[in-house]
Amino acid sequence: xxxxxxxxxxxxxxxxxxxxxxxxxxxxxxxxxxxxxxxxxxxxxxxxxxxxxxxxxxxxxxxxxxxxxxxxxxxxxxxxxxxxxxxxxxxxxxxxxxxxxxxxxxxxxxxxxxxxxxxxxxxxxxxxxxxxxxxxxxxxxxxxxxxxxxxxxxxxxxxxxxxxxxxxxxxxxxxxxxxxxxxxxxxxxxxxxxxxxxxxxxxxxxxxxxxxxxxxxxxxxxxxxxxxxxxxxxxxxxxxxxxxxxxxxxxxxxxxxxxxxxxxxxxxxxxxxxxxxxxxxxxxxxxxxxxxxxxxxxxxxxxxxxxxxxxxxxxxxxxxxxxxxxxxx
Length: 329
Description:
16 strands, 11 helices, 7-stranded mixed β-sheet, globular, CATH 3.30.1330.10, Phosphoribosyl-aminoimidazole Synthetase, Chain A, domain 2, 329 residues
């Protein structure tokens, strides 16, 4: 079922461009320019990537960190704690990695809220098979916040960067359609809480398994699927042409809500066109629904087709999503 059946392309473009998960990415670049090193020994990649990649002997260490948005912490502390682990596990997976361990910074003066945050983290650690090995507690703050950092590993041949897309590559969306929107959290597409740890970890491991076939990849996060593709293209200094009605979508869900959703397990990747069919089959073998939805092209524009409509979602000569690399590393 295509998005074209429900929504005009102009509305899709307006909603994505104005969506909070997209707009709040813009300040990242100004921070990165100050903090990111120009050169640092074994650092392979940093700005614009889902995790920092650090050479360590014959392996690559991956280091990710995420803080959970205040709205979610206030509305559902347990789910916020759960998501603090989930988002990091997805970041490590998106780089072709396997998560090893996590640490947290928990700020909360309310014992009941703190307990719900901790129980959510505990449930997610069990679900994703990632031990929480340490952290820091502020037990007397006037606010509640949870932040998690995660360490993972991969090998040079399985390292997937956001910045590797090449002209002519196929754009592939791979999503777990077996889920539901979290009650009260309209853009949280939950595909993990009701699955077994084995199923969750198998789906997440698909990026590591098929990483050598990919040129670039990201997990579909706060900006939604099209916003996340925009981040990948910005990091790669490429444009793309995408057919919106080819993006996998579950039946009976609102298409705009879906395009803006944070995926419990979803990825957008690029690969050589000749490999796209085999890569989609690989995703499908792990329980994800995958489709070729477009091509990477020269230039700076992410162009969308929706039936007989055509429009420009982003032009990276003007637009910023926080993934432009300010230094060559």
